[in-house]
Amino acid sequence: MVQAYIHDNNYETDFREAHDSGVPVTLEQLSKLGVFYKYLETQEAVDALAEERNYKNRDIVNISRATFPDEQSLLNKLSIFFTEHLHEDEEIRYCLDGEGYFDVRDPISNDWIRIKFEPNDLIIVPAGIYHRFTLTSKNYVKALRLFQDEPKWLAINKPEGDSSTAYQNYVQWVA
Ligand code: KMT
Ligand code: NI
């Protein structure tokens, strides 16, 4: 079963640690933020979902010691993913191997909700929600990134994202 909980907001220790505050978050709470989690056993199930939601493109992201041999280049890559950002389109991520954490920002409480991302986990991240991603201390993830249109993953960082239509529509939807 997927683990989701409120992040402890402790930035003194490595961000790849669990940072579990001890407060769990349910899938129902996530769905109220427009975030959907599914455990999909097969690639066919992923393809069916992608088709149903009109996803036309995909790529594979592979972050590991093999692809980033030195700690500094790995940290540089991770710091981009871990910067609070949003996208103007919905995004789907499916874990093929390894593990990571997806953090989504609750726009009402401002809490970071951390979702553990492991093989066969699929997460639908709605347009306009602030989020970030990190590896765990295992330093390895291989994931499918699904795109509705061209494989563009323009990230709009905080605070620029606040004035985007995607953010304003999202916050209105949640409220
Ligand atoms: C994103 O948009 O935040 C990402 O693609 C993170 C890496 S996907 C495992
Ligand atoms: Ni993103």
TrEMBL record:
It comes from the Eukaryota. Its cofactor is Fe(2+); Ni(2+). This is Acireductone dioxygenase. One of its GO terms (cellular component) is cytoplasm. Its main location: cytoplasm. GO terms for molecular function: acireductone dioxygenase (Ni2+-requiring) activity; acireductone dioxygenase [iron(II)-requiring] activity; iron ion binding; nickel cation binding. Pathway: Amino-acid biosynthesis; L-methionine biosynthesis via salvage pathway; L-methionine from S-methyl-5-thio-alpha-D-ribose 1-phosphate: step 5/6. Keywords: Amino-acid biosynthesis, Cytoplasm, Dioxygenase, Iron, Metal-binding, Methionine biosynthesis, Nickel, Nucleus, Oxidoreductase.
